[in-house]
Design goal:
Layout: H1 2-20, H2 25-32, H3 41-61, H4 82-98, H5 102-108, H6 118-127
Helix pairs in contact: 2-4, 5-6
C-alpha cells in the first residue's frame, strides 16, 4: 500500500508541476527575471503550495501515526548553519541559471523524446 500511495503522490505532484508551468524553464526564468518582462504567475503557484504545505504540517503535528500507520517523522531542527546557507545559495544559482529545480527537472525528463536535453544535463549535474 505504501508503494501505491507513494506512486500516486508522485504522479499528482508531477502533474501539478506540469499544469502550473513549473516544469517549463522559460516560464520559471520569466518569473525570476524581475528586470525584464516579469511573469508573476508562479508566485501564485508558490503561494498555493505554501498554504497547502502549512495546512498539511499543522495536521501532521497532531498525529502520532500517518494515515498508513507509519510513525510521523517531522523535522525538528531550526538551526541555520553553513550547510543550509550553502545549499540554499547553490539551489538558487542553479534555478536562476537553468530555470530548473530538482522536482521539475525530473518531471521534464519526460520531454527527452522531443529533443529536449536541458533537463537531462541538469539532472546529471544535480547528481554529481
Amino acid at each position: 500500500m505504501l508503494v501505491l500511495t507513494s506512486l500516486l503522490a508522485g504522479l499528482v505532484f508531477g502533474l501539478g508541476l506540469i499544469v502550473s508551468g513549473m516544469s517549463n524553464p522559460a516560464k520559471v526564468l520569466g518569473f525570476l527575471d524581475i528586470a525584464g518582462p516579469w511573469d508573476p504567475s508562479l508566485a501564485f503557484v508558490m503561494g498555493g503550495a505554501i498554504a497547502v504545505g502549512a495546512i498539511a504540517f499543522a495536521l501532521a503535528r497532531r498525529r502520532s501515526l500517518s494515515f498508513l500507520g507509519a510513525a510521523m517523522k517531522l523535522p525538528t531542527s531550526r538551526d541555520i548553519d553553513k550547510r543550509l546557507i550553502g545549499g540554499s545559495v547553490l539551489f538558487g544559482i542553479g534555478w536562476g541559471i537553468a530555470g530548473f529545480c530538482p522536482g521539475p527537472a525530473l518531471v521534464s525528463l519526460m520531454s527527452l523524446g522531443r529533443g529536449e536535453t536541458k533537463a537531462l544535463i541538469f539532472v546529471v549535474a544535480m547528481l554529481l
